[in-house]
Amino acid sequence: MSNFSRFMKQNKVIKKNEKFAPTKSLTDENGNALEWEFQHITSKQNEDMRERNTYDVPIKGKPNMFRPKLNATKYIADMIVASTVVPDLYDKELQDSYGVKTPNDLVFALVDDPGEYSDFCTWMQEFQGFTETLDDKVDEAKN
């Protein structure tokens, strides 16, 4: 096998879906938290989400100069939606039962405890391969 052939797609390891229970509010008949199923996103999907959730902020004292700023809340919510296999966040009946119209709003309705949502966001970032969460980077920037 040549060095080049090792890079062929058939040699690439396929990442498996994982299950995680993001909230204790949704349980089965035995009181166990319901597990959701998640898939890995691609680098391209990630960049599209980052781009979609980045906007320009004017720099004070410098007219017509801007810096990019990521809306981390929307970015992570988009990541959760793109990763979720089960439940189907696009299901109209499920959205209607919570009185929401979008998959992102449904995530917030399903995981409505702030502490659980924060833990869920941390888990999602680690699942997607980020070794430092956005919160870690914010804390580092503050110091």
Question: What does this 3D model show about the protein?
Answer:
This protein is α+β, with helices and mostly antiparallel strands. The chain contains six helices and five strands, in the order ββαββαβαααα. The strands form two sheets. It has a three-stranded antiparallel beta sheet with strand order 1-2-5. The protein has a two-stranded antiparallel ribbon with strand order 3-4. Strand 3 (54-58) and strand 4 (66-70) form a beta hairpin. Helix 2 crosses helix 4.
Task: Fill in the keyword field for this structure.
single chain; 143 residues; alpha+beta; three-stranded antiparallel sheet; two-stranded antiparallel sheet; 6 helices; 5 strands
Briefly characterize the structure.
The chain is of the alpha+beta class. The protein has helices at 43-52, 72-83, 92-98, 103-110, 114-127, 134-142, and strands at 18-20, 36-38, 54-58, 66-70, 84-86. The relative contact order is 0.14.
Low-confidence stretches: none
Count helical runs.
Answer: 6
- In whole angstroms, the N-to-C terminal distance is 49 Å
For the biggest sheet, the summary is: 3 strands, antiparallel
Could you say which overall geometry the principal axes of the C-alpha atoms support? globular
* Beta content: 5-15%
Helix content: 40-55%
Number of beta strands: 5
Oligomer: single chain
Radius of gyration: 19 Å
Give the strand order of the largest sheet, numbering strands 1, 2, ... along the chain: 1-2-5
Q: What is the helix/strand order?
A: EEHEEHEHHHH
Overall mean pLDDT score?
91
State the secondary-structure class: alpha+beta
